[in-house]
Write a structure and sequence with these properties.
heterodimer, A: alpha/beta, Aspartate Aminotransferase, domain 1, Aspartate Aminotransferase, domain 2, 2 domains, seven-stranded mixed sheet, 13 strands, 37% helix, globular, B: alpha/beta, 14 helices, 9% strand, EC 1.4.4.2 (chain A), glycine dehydrogenase (decarboxylating) activity (chain A), GDC_P (chain A), Probable glycine dehydrogenase (decarboxylating) subunit 1 (chain A), PyrdxlP-dep_Trfase_major (chain A)
Chain lengths: 457, 517
């Protein structure tokens, strides 16, 4: 038992100090009904590193690794190249094995990093203040709705039909229990989002309107009219972004008048990891809303000698102080993922992020042009960043995705998987392209897609 | 690790302010203690640490006229500068790797490096959550195996794997309870929470639209069973009880409480934050629990990372299992694993819905499963026993000089609770905590639980040697003696940390939450 330093001699000496005959004496308060006569049955006994690693490797080997095949999946999780130094930095024990920085004098590393992270996120989003992270984009989306209901004292949220359906599900799950009203919709399959239709759904009871940018079909459009319409009715505009790299190429949500900007930060530093842990980003355009924000905030201050330092602040919003009156119940967030994001963003800088975004867009344009030449395939989007929707000429996208996987190509996310039972969306395929995509990958997808479409009834 | 200081050397404290003397340095650095500017003070907008093709301004775009025209305001560093920036920052942090970290209720145990290695296998780290399920059978099997371990360790029949952290798990449990009541048309409004509970408990219940009422504690530090029973009734949806509780004691009447709650039509939520005290030794299912979250980042050794990510799977009783959130993993007769999501109408049953975009914290699952396989059923039992032994050893080594309000209530579990009742001349728990920083320790949890004045909650965990604990006790006693003696020097501690005490009031009065300039 290589993680347990006590020896039997130690244990005996310690029991003697305590005045207990055996360790069982320390568990006397466990009622009879719950006492066990030995290790829990039906589970293996301890094992060495080699045996454990062998077992885990055998499980890992059953998965098709994204980096081993032409890969085009997105829909809220994107495969980007993460520089090698990111992982070595986050594995430093002082970051990896620290706790939430409750003792700021010996946590300045985490705190300064969070202050820098908050600044990076705020600037990327075109906002004044960002928090120190939430769990992921979907839970951040719900926290934004909850915050909007507090700020406006209204209980109705209008969701764009082109919001990621999982995000919409999370919001609806939570709203069911909080008693908030959620007006949702399904995406209309058309080249551009129906912003007029969305604006028409905003009324005087609306706390916020939630729009994804780029949206679930990869479309992008100017949200300024939505912001103006929301503000005219006293509602807030919440913009959701699932691909932060896009903001190196397109206008920030803050510039277009978003009041709360939330998103998924996984693209930078974190990796795919089968969906978690990811990184919830949360920012407000106007600092006046800061006291209604959920989650931890790191702020600048000075120490007793006047040296600059950082602390967690405005904690009177939080559960450990306010208990049932807190703005959120969140405690542990995604600190180490925030570090990974921040290191990756530091390596990129303004110049690198713009170059990365341009390269994603260049390859996506290349892919869209090539795939449009596949017989029976059309590109839906007028505008996109690095993800677009393909219409497969009436062929079932889910079946084609599975077929492509059998041919060694992870060809995209079928909208049928995201919107089960919605017939209009069954023939659409979401394709994401990043800097990790090669021209050979694009060619492989085009080739296999053509075959698959031909062979699929 | 933490070997006693045999040389006998101590820093001298000669200057008037108590600082050790020495010449000022030009840089403000002190040898290995290096000051580091903010990224935004050293980074440049035209510098990058990655090699990408330059932007071709003439390339055609399909950005719908939304191309960014203004500066974002980000700065970059080259790779060597980046590595140095973060390495310097890291050295201003305390972590378990560096020393003893007895933060009560947080279970700061050693984070095995095999876990890190396994989580980084491309077969786990480089797979997409929406990949076709036949391409990720190994990932689904990890979720399934980990779930099975959790069910067996807790003696519960079902588990929800998607919650992202402890508080998210609490929410999962409370939403399942609400859904179960709603399913039988029972609109209950109240959740009972002991005063000693973690703040997340009342915050969670309130978030789920419940009214929160306190349950009082007995003088011996446990739930007042009589008061609780008297409050039960048709309006009480659930009780949320932490067991072992935050006073460090096992709730020995838990089964009786659970039976009473069930008889009154309510459900029992157990906060599993303190599961490390009983893992492999006591199964909460035997105590009548209906739902309990498990912090994989506490009991099962996944790293805290300076504040997450965590992972908070929730085990459920038969009564609540049908209401568990989507998605979850099942195995068909042919042995193929699959996800039950929104579309599996028949199988999803009365599930209360989705709590997060994907399937949970896969990166934490691989680490936790690696840890469980390493320890096995026998090792996990030893984990609980050593954790409890270490805490009792500290309790009995301190109680002669430090107020231990529940020392007479019997053995503690995996954490020992003290209070500041006997400190003199204005000295407080905070001063002791800061004094421990100078002694090279991360302080214990302070001012929690709220039921003890100036609470100090010490959780040593099982991954400390006796020598390390003995040295801590020596240091803790020395600092406590200074507090008992009213040593005003302690009020200025820490002296030797990268920063002296920070002005938290100023930070909150005029919040500066981003770099300006």
């Amino acid at each position: 038992m290589r993680y347990l330093p006590l020896t039997d001699t130690d244990r005996q000496a310690m029991l003697a100090k305590i005045g207990a005959a055996s360790v069982d004496d320390l568990f006397v308060d466990v009622p009879e009904v719950a006492r066990l006569d030995g290790p829990i049955r039906g589970l293996p006994m301890h094992a060495g590193e080699m045996a454990v690693e062998r077992h885990m490797k055998s499980l890992a080997a059953k998965n098709l690794v994204a980096g081993d095949v032409p890969f085009f999946l997105g829909a809220g999780a994107y495969r980007h190249h993460v520089p090698a130094s990111v992982d070595t930095i986050i594995q430093r024990g002082e970051f990896l094995t620290a706790y939430t920085p409750y003792q700021p004098e010996i946590a300045q590393g985490t705190l300064q990093m969070l202050f820098e992270f908050q600044t990076q996120v705020a600037r990327l989003y075109g906002c004044a203040v960002a928090n120190a992270s939430l769990y992921d984009g979907s839970t951040a989306c719900w926290e934004a709705v909850a915050m909007a209901t507090r700020v406006t004292r209204r209980k109705r949220a209008v969701l764009s039909g082109a919001l990621h359906p999982h995000y919409a599900s999370v919001v609806k799950t939570m709203a069911h229990f909080t008693g908030d009203e959620i007006a949702d919709a399904q995406p209309a399959i058309q080249p551009e989002p129906d912003l007029d239709g969305l604006i028409a759904r905003i009324d005087e009871e609306t706390a916020c309107v939630v729009v994804q940018y780029p949206d679930i079909l990869g479309r992008i459009s100017d949200l300024t009219p939505v912001a103006e319409a929301a503000h005219a009715k006293g509602a807030l505009l919440v913009v959701v972004n699932t691909e932060p790299v896009a903001l190196g190429a397109i206008k920030s949500p803050g510039e277009m008048g978003a009041d709360i900007v939330v998103g998924e930060g996984q693209s930078l530093g974190v990796g795919l990891q089968f969906g978690g842990p990811y990184l919830g980003l949360f920012a407000v355009r106007d600092a006046k809303h800061v006291r209604q924000m959920p989650g931890r905030l790191c702020g600048e201050t000075v120490d007793a000698e006047g040296k600059r330092g950082f602390v967690l602040t405005l904690s009177t919003r939080e559960q450990h102080i306010r208990r049932e009156k807190a703005t959120s119940n969140i405690c542990t967030n995604s600190g180490l993922c925030a570090l990974a994001f921040s290191v990756h963003m530091t390596l990129l800088g303004e110049r690198g992020l713009r170059e990365l975004a341009a390269e994603n867009h260049r390859l996506a344009c290349l892919a869209a042009d090539r795939l449009a030449k596949v017989p029976g395939v059309e590109v839906l989007n007028t505008a996109f960043f690095n993800e677009f929707t393909l219409m497969l000429g009436g062929k079932p996208a889910r079946q084609i995705v599975r077929d492509l996987a059998d041919r060694g190509v992870l060809g995209g996310v079928s909208l049928g998987r995201l919107y089960p039972g919605v017939e209009a969306l069954e023939h659409a395929l979401l394709v994401a392209v990043t800097e990790t995509t090669t021209e050979e990958d694009i060619e492989a997808l085009a080739r296999e897609l053509e075959t698959s479409i031909k062979e699929t009834v | 690790m933490n070997a006693p200081n045999t040389s006998g050397w101590k820093p001298e404290m000669t200057a008037a302010d108590g600082m050790h003397s020495g010449p000022a340095t030009t840089t403000g650095n002190r040898a290995l203690m290096l000051e580091e500017p903010l990224l935004f003070e050293i980074g440049r907008t035209d510098v990058t640490g990655v090699d990408l093709p330059a932007v071709d301004a003439s390339a055609p775009t399909r950005l719908g006229g939304l191309a960014r025209s203004n500066a974002i305001g980000l700065v970059g560093l080259t790779e060597p500068e980046t590595v140095r920036h973060y390495t310097r920052l890291s050295r201003q942090n305390y972590g378990i790797d560096l020393g003893f970290f007895p933060l009560g209720s947080c279970t700061m145990k050693h984070n095995p490096r095999l876990n890190e290695k396994v989580a980084r296998l491309p077969g786990f780290a480089d797979i997409h959550p929406l990949a076709p399920q036949n391409a990720v059978q190994g990932a689904l099997e990890v979720i399934s195996q980990l779930g099975e371990w959790l069910c067996k360790l807790t003696g519960m029949p079902a588990v929800a794997m998607s919650p992202k952290a402890g508080a998210h798990g609490e929410l999962c449990g409370i939403l399942a309870i609400r859904a179960a009541h709603e399913a039988r048309g029972d609109a209950r409004e109240v959740v009972l929470v002991p005063e000693s509970a973690h703040g997340t408990n009342p915050a969670t219940a309130a978030f789920a639209n419940y009214r929160v009422e306190d349950i009082p504690a007995t003088p011996e530090g446990r739930v007042d069973v009589a008061a609780l029973k008297a409050r039960l009734g048709p309006d009480v949806a659930a009780v949320m009880i932490t067991n072992p509780n935050t006073c460090g004691l096992f709730e020995k009447d838990f089964r009786e409480i659970a039976d009473a709650v069930h008889a009154a039509g309510g459900y029992v939520y157990c906060d599993g934050a303190n599961f490390n005290a009983i893992v492999g030794r006591v199964r909460p299912g035997d105590l009548g629990v209906d739902a309990m979250h498990i912090n994989l980042h506490k009991t099962f050794s996944t790293p805290h990372g300076g504040g997450g990510p965590g992972s908070g799977p929730v085990v459920f009783s038969e009564a609540l299992a049908p209401f568990a959130p989507l998605p979850f993993v099942r195995q068909d007769e042919g042995g193929t694993f699959y996800l039950v999501e929104e579309e599996n109408r028949a199988e999803r049953g009365p599930s209360f819905g989705r709590m997060t975009a994907f399937h949970g914290q896969m990166g934490m699952f691989t680490r936790a499963l690696t840890y469980m396989l390493s320890h096995g059923a026998d090792g996990l039992k030893q984990v609980a026993e050593d954790a409890v032994l270490n805490a009792n050893y500290i309790l009995r080594s301190m109680e002669d000089i430090l107020h231990a309000p529940f020392a007479a209530s019997g053995p503690c579990m995996h954490e020992a609770l003290f209070g500041d009742k006997d400190f003199t001349e204005g000295l407080t728990t905070l001063d002791v905590a800061k004094g421990l920083i100078d002694e090279g320790y991360h302080p214990m949890t302070v001012y929690f639980p709220l039921v003890v004045h100036g609470a100090m909650l010490v959780e040593p965990t099982e991954t400390e040697s006796k020598a390390a604990i003995d040295q801590f006790i020596t240091a803790f006693r020395a600092v406590v003696e200074r507090a008992l003696a009213g040593d005003q020097g302690l009020k200025q501690a820490p002296y030797y940390a990268p920063r002296r005490r920070l002005d938290e009031t100023a930070a909150a009065r005029k919040p500066k939450l981003a770099f300006e300039g």
